Description:
Blueprint: H1 2-7, H2 10-19, E1 28-34, H3 40-53, E2 58-64, H4 72-80, E3 90-96, H5 101-117, E4 122-128, H6 132-138, E5 143-148, H7 155-160, H8 163-166, E6 169-172, H9 180-192, E7 204-206, H10 215-232, H11 234-262, H12 266-276, H13 282-294
Parallel strand pairs: 1-4, 1-5, 2-3, 2-4, 5-6, 6-7
Helix pairs in contact: 5-6, 5-11, 12-13
The chain binds guanosine-5'-triphosphate and magnesium ion (MG).
Guanosine-5'-triphosphate (GTP) binds next to helix 3 and helix 4.
Amino acid sequence: MLSLIERGGDLARRVGELTFAPSRAVDHVVGITGAPGAGKSTLTDRLIGAARADGGQVGVLAIDPSSPFSGGAILGDRIRMQGHALDEGVFIRSMATRGSQGGLALAAPEAIRVLAAVGMNLVLVETVGVGQVEVEVAGEADTTLVVVTPGWGDSVQASKAGLLEVADIFVVNKADRDGAAETRRDLENMLDINPAMGDWRPPVLLTSAATGAGIDALWSAVIEHRAHLEATGDLAIRRDRRLVDEMGRILVHLVERDVRALEGSEGFEAVKAELLGRRLDPYQAAARLLETGRS
Ligand SMILES: Nc1nc2c(ncn2[C@@H]2O[C@H](COP(=O)(O)OP(=O)(O)OP(=O)(O)O)[C@@H](O)[C@H]2O)c(=O)[nH]1
Ligand SMILES: [Mg+2]
């Protein structure tokens, strides 16, 4: 079903319809994002372990917007999550862009619904990097972990990347290395002056995914955040907002597709001639084309 969704087309729509059932919502979607090599996959492997110990079924989507489908990062993800490769209660799937970054942002929520439909309680979504698409995909989560490493704590960089807005929990991973405490302090300072913060202050937690240190506290924080969302009603609000956002992205995608289909058509060439003859300005020309497309 995930492959059908990636491929798109009529069968993808059928899968989408069948898995879009409110009764099938996954208990908790946790996003894990951060710079390349920060330890996201190793951390994901640890979180799978913690979730399995609690008895839930775990689905993992490892999403890489930057590399081609057979890219090294995804192979790395696979190797890093080998700890649970033989566990029947764990399903791990990599997804890459195959050309269109927008396509990935469109496919991710559908993929999460597929995992929910087959009975996953927890879905972990790992995204590489801190660009627009990653932040968008991270926004698909109920709880978003932003993973940084010691020496990283450049607050300007974080606010530029929009990480402050998406982070529910900051993880300073590789805390077995020097500088973790300073990075934590930088992040705390940054949170102190963040005006946009609601009633949940993102905790800043130190972990070493390599050794397992700090993982229990991280897992507790993940569960606590889920409970907070439930208690405040934010869980339903976030999920509703995500659905509306998803609809908006699909709308843009469909309009773009229609616009591309117009290019080269008779109507397009006619309006282009008016534009190049300086009889229509670009706004007038675009409006004329939109009308043509609708009629
Ligand atoms: N010292 C140390 N190394 C770690 C820790 N966690 C992960 N690593 C190492 O860091 C490297 C990258 O780990 P990954 O888990 O693949 O990192 P990632 O963020 O998933 O990487 P990409 O998916 O390629 O962006 C590997 O060599 C890990 O063994 C840690 O806590 N301490
Ligand atoms: Mg990884």
